[in-house]
Amino acid sequence: MIYVIDHNDSFTHNVVHQFSLFDKVECDNYNQLNKDKLKKATVLVFSPGPGNPKNYPMTSKIYKKFKGQKKIIGICLGFQQILFCEGGKIIEQKKIYHGYQSTVKVVSDRSLFEIGKKFKVGRYHSLKLKEPFKRKNFDITMRCLNSKVAMSFENNNEKIYGFQFHPESFLTIDGNLLIKKILSA
Amino acid sequence: MNKIKKLTEIHNSGKPYIIYKSQKGFDLYTNFSKKIILNNKNIKSFLNSRQKNKSNNTDLFIGFFGYELLNYLINIKLPKQKNINFPKGIFYKPETKIHLSDSFEYKFKNRFKSNNFKINIDINSYTKIFNKFKKKIKRGETYQIKICTKYKTKSKINPLDFFCRLSKTNLAPEAFLIKDKDYSIISCSPENLITKKGDHISTKPIAGTLKKTRVLNKSKALNYFRKNIKETKEHNMIVDMERNDLSRICKVGSVKLSKQKIVEEYKDLFHYVSLIEGKLKKNIKNIDIIKAMMPGGSVIGCPKINTLNLLNNQEKENRNIYTGSFGYIKFNGDMRFNIIIRSILNFKNISEISVASGVVVDSNAKNEFNENYIKAKALIDLYK
Known about the structure:
The structure holds 2 protein chains of 2 kinds.
Chain A: E1 2-6, H1 12-20, E2 25-29, H2 35-40, E3 43-46, H3 57-66, E4 71-75, H4 77-85, E5 90-106, E6 118-129, E7 139-144, E8 150-155, E9 160-163, H5 175-184
Parallel strand pairs in A: 1-2, 1-3, 3-4, 4-9
Antiparallel strand pairs in A: 5-6, 5-7, 7-8, 8-9
Chain B: H1 2-13, E1 17-21, E2 26-30, E3 34-38, H2 43-48, E4 60-65, H3 67-73, E5 89-93, E6 96-100, E7 118-119, H4 123-138, E8 144-154, H5 159-169, E9 176-179, E10 183-187, E11 192-197, E12 200-204, E13 206-211, H6 218-227, H7 229-247, E14 256-265, E15 269-279, H8 286-293, E16 301-302, H9 304-314, E17 325-330, E18 335-338, E19 343-347, E20 350-359, H10 365-380
Antiparallel strand pairs in B: 1-2, 1-9, 2-6, 3-5, 4-5, 4-17, 7-8, 8-16, 8-20, 9-10, 10-19, 11-12, 11-18, 12-15, 13-15, 14-15, 17-18, 19-20
């Protein structure tokens, strides 16, 4: 079972529908989580959401508790939340991407995806990861073709993944494929 | 002609009635056997009530939910606001339905005029709010937010005369008129929020409006929208948000973007619209649908909950009907609801017109303030 932790977002149920193509999905808001579901889940998904990782200490706690035991996937805010827990700084960027379609490129040969491959993706973020960011086992695997901003990371050792863009957006082409590959890793 | 006479007769009799745009023409509903005034206490039981008769074309409740009531349904509290104590929602059970053609006439001589509309937020305070929200967008607290301004004037209008003239210049697909004893609403809403038939549901958000000119045709309008980054971004966001809201209540894999960013042509306007459809999950009740879809995202901003809270803490005056929903619930469960925008509320001899436009990072306060005025102007012009 996949447990999606919602951060009061207006895109979370797109995430739920997308993951439901591959497994049973449960979803609750971050302040109404169910302990049994948390325990039972094999995959935890941190949803997109407004604000900054600092606003969601509960999600950080869950991340630290289950890191290494369950597969954890973060999307947008969820991506930032994981990196924040790993010591990354999340900062405002000059250009704001709310409702943008951009091209991202696979930049790491340790990625599940072929290096050099490009994807068209939908973006909704005003914050980004401050770089350089270095953490053992965490690789930045995709970047925006134009701005070079970090767009995905993979930790294939501990099965932790994150997308700064939105695989579930209608602006993302092949979003299902991305999720399928991460889930089967 | 007989029907027009009948309409004039009903109007002159002082009997309450409702006119709602249908696919071809308008439907007139009257002879109300029930009037239900909604509040926080009875809204849930109203939405959960079941009716026996389902076969007559008047087996339905028609009316509106105000903005505050829709917030209440999704557990969002409004702070204390200036309030004219207009009902939070009203529904009627009609016993008579009459079909009218698009071009119904109503002649009226002693027209009410006013050139004394007052705005509740001046450009300076608007700019302050605008800059505050811009900061919140940069911090990621909201992705898009709509600032609402309100125009008011003392009035003593004939609502049928106003509605008739408005429909002539702007035949909007979700237009309606409610004429009751103590209030009236005149609307040229273009936006359908819910069309539900059986287990099929659709929503048709609009983001992007362009006034027609002699040189502007449909394909040029499409070109304009595609090149306009602000409109495109806003539209994209609304599409994903509406997909989300439908996904709450629809079967996995059934939510489809069946029309993506197309241009629809109306008498005076082009609209940039999308159509999103889905199949409802089993056991989904109408109250679940209303809670998932309302208030309609395209007039609020995104993400919905946080943005509603930001808006509500900012606004000093109750929105009343504005960004609520008007429509009907048939006794067989089918529904049709719009989003209440481009509307005039007449209550206690005051007309109020609310408008809103979106804050995104690359827009500026003055432009948006003016856009609000342009939106209100079509309605204010009726008072000339």
